[in-house]
C-alpha cells in the first residue's frame, strides 16, 4: 500500500484557548496538487505550520511521508516557501545566488557549502524563474517580484518531492504568475511532485490544481474545482453569487 | 618615540593582539545579531555583566568567573523569553538588561556603595589586559571562526529566515544557542577592552559599516572584521600617542568608519 505524502486526521489547533482549526482531515497522495484557499484568518498558514511540525496540534495527528513531523528527518523531500519572511531585512547582504543555494541545504551532508556539482541545479532553478541575469545582485536591492522569484527558485532548486508554497504569487506580475503556474504544472505532471499551494486567487488555482481545499477554521470543501463550482452545498454556504464569483463565472451570472 | 619603541612595550603587544582577536569576534557575531534585529543583545548582556561583576565583588570571588556562567545563562534566558513568552527580542533583552543593572546596583548598595573595581569594569582598560585574557581571546576567536566555517550555510539560512531554515532540517535552537553563548563569552571578554558601557558598539558598528559596502554575505563578514580590527589597532595607537581613553577612541573611530562608508555608499548610488 503506497504511503500518503500527507495524511491529516482529526486535526485541531487552539491559540489562547480560541479554536483556530477544528477537526481537519484529508489525505494527499504522490502527485497530488491541492489549492488551499479560504478567507484571511481561516487557518491556512496554521495548517501548513502543523503539517511541517513547527507547532503542535491540540488534537489529531499529521503524517508526513508516513512519519510524525516532530521526528521527521527527510527534509530534502520538501521545498517550502513561507508566506512572508518575518525577519527579512531590506538590507540583507546576500546575493540572489547565495539565497537560492540555501534551498540545497537539506540535500547536503558535509560540507554543506555549495560546490561545483551544485552549479547545474542552481543554474536550472534560476533560469526557470528568469533570475540568472540578477544572480550576483543583493536580494535587498531587488523589487518585491524579483525577490519572490528568487525565493521560489530556492524552494524548487533541490527538486523536492513535496512543494509547500504559502502565497507564492504575491507581488508577482500576471505574466510571471502564469509562467510560474505552468512550471508547477510541469513539475506536478512530469516529475510527480506533490504540491500544496495557498492562494487567494481561487479562479487561477482552479485551472491547475487537481483538488481544492476550502478552509474556514474547518474543512468547508475538499474536492475538484469542477465539483466545487457545481456543488449545491457550496451554493448554500457561499450564496450562489459568491460561488460564481469564486469560479470566475460572473459573466454567465450577468447574462441570466 | 618611534613605532618600534611603541611596539616593544609588552602591554601594547598584548593589547594589539587581544584587541584584534576580540574585534574579529565582535564584528563577525555582530553581522548575525544586527541582521536578526538582536543588535542590543550586547548592550543587555553588558548590563548583566555589570550585575554579575557586582555579585563577584560581593561574594569576594573573581568577577570574571562569576560573570561567565551568569551572562551565558542570561543569553539563553533571552532566547527562551523570546520563544516561550512570545516576546520580541528587544523586549526580552530589556527585561534581562534591567535585571542585571538592578541586581548590580542592589548588591553594590548592600556591600556599602560602589567601589573602584566596579567602575574600572564600566569603562575598561585594554592596556591592562593579562596574558590569560590574550590567550582566551585567541582561543575564543579560533573557535568562533571554526564554528562559522562549519555552520556557515546554516547560520546564513537562519539569519535570512528561521522558518525556512527549520524546513531544511536545521536544528535552529542548537545554532541559536551556539550564537548567543559565543556572544555572551565575547561580551565578558570585550568588557576589559572598552568597558561595559561601550561593548555593544563593537558588536554593532563594524557590521553596519560593512553593510554599507557589502557585495555578498561573505564579503560583509570580511569587511566587518577589517573595520573592527582597524578601529582597535588605530584606536590603541592614537589613544596612546594622544593620551586619550582607549575604549572611547576605538568606538569613535568605528563611528568615523561608518560615516565614511555611508558617504561612499551615498556617492556611489
Q: If you had to describe this structure to a student in words, what would you say it looks like?
A:
The complex is a heterodimer of chains A (256) and B (269). Chain A has 256 residues and is of the alpha/beta class. Chain A has one domain (6-223): P-loop containing nucleotide triphosphate hydrolases (Rossmann fold, 3-Layer(aba) Sandwich), CATH 3.40.50. In chain A, 34% of the residues lie in helices and 22% in strands. Chain A has 10 helices and 9 strands. The radius of gyration of chain A is 19 Å and the shape is globular. The model of chain A is unreliable at 250-256 (pLDDT under 50). Chain B is globular. Chain B has one domain (3-264): ABC transporter involved in vitamin B12 uptake, BtuC. Chain B is an all-alpha fold. The model of chain B has no long low-confidence stretch (mean pLDDT 88). Chain A binds chain B through residues 52, 54, 73, 75-76, 78, 80-82, 85-89, 91-95, 98-99, 101-103, 105-106, 108, 112-114, 138, 154, 164, and chain B through 35-37, 152-154, 156-157, 159-170, 210-211, 214-217, 219-220.
Which keywords apply here?
heterodimer, A: 256 residues, alpha/beta, Rossmann fold, 10 helices, 34% helix, disordered C terminus, B: 269 residues, mainly alpha, ABC transporter involved in vitamin B12 uptake, BtuC, 83% helix
